[in-house]
């Protein structure tokens, strides 16, 4: 399992009951990925992402928890992330995250976790990281390693997104 972001205590507690290997990859902790130089090329960004993720070679991902994490990354970083993820994706890989119905929709960044089979935790982030909501269509065009197979509109205006292998 790959969990983007710093991880949460609830996720660690919940998953400790299973024999799951979880890798937490907090890419926004890296200033070069959070605010990449305009002239950064795809290979350089992919190398930075690979270094930050520290994923063993040959690892395949069953579940990728993206939460709202992609909304902190610009298009070039998301495309590089997609290229890094591609070799780790199997036909049965699934992803989960949140998006915006429209990119102009206001969204607040949250720290998410899993506390039960059908229960998530959510707490507002207190940092001032740049947060740009990406629409479902935009994510579908730029996150190519996984395709959006379903989007469900939630009461607060966010989209709950299910991703699958292409």
What does this molecule look like?
With 166 residues, the protein is an alpha/beta fold. The chain has one domain (2-164): Rossmann fold (3-Layer(aba) Sandwich). Helices cover 25% and strands 31% of the residues. It has 5 helices and 8 strands; from the N terminus they run βαβααβαβββαββ. The strands form 2 sheets. It has a 6-stranded mixed sheet with strand order 2-1-3-4-8-7, covered by helices on one side. A two-stranded antiparallel sheet has the order 5-6. Strand 5 (110-116) and strand 6 form a beta hairpin. Helix 3 crosses helix 4 (75-85). The two termini are 18 Å apart. The model has no long low-confidence stretch (mean pLDDT 88).
Average predicted local confidence, pLDDT: 88
Q: According to CATH, what is the class? A: Alpha Beta
Estimated helix fraction: 10-25%
Put simply, the count of helices is 5
Give the percentage of residues in beta strands.
Answer: 25-35%
Number of domains: 1
User: Strand order across the biggest sheet?
Assistant: 2-1-3-4-8-7
Overall form:
globular
> Structural class given helices, strands, pairing?
alpha/beta
Span of the ends, CA to CA: 18 Å
CATH architecture: 3-Layer(aba) Sandwich
What is the fold-level CATH name, i.e. the topology? Answer: Rossmann fold
Unreliable stretches: none
- Number of strand segments: 8
Instruction: Describe the largest sheet.
Output: 6 strands, mixed
SSE arrangement, N to C: EHEHHEHEEEHEE
Instruction: Return Rg in Å.
Output: 15 Å
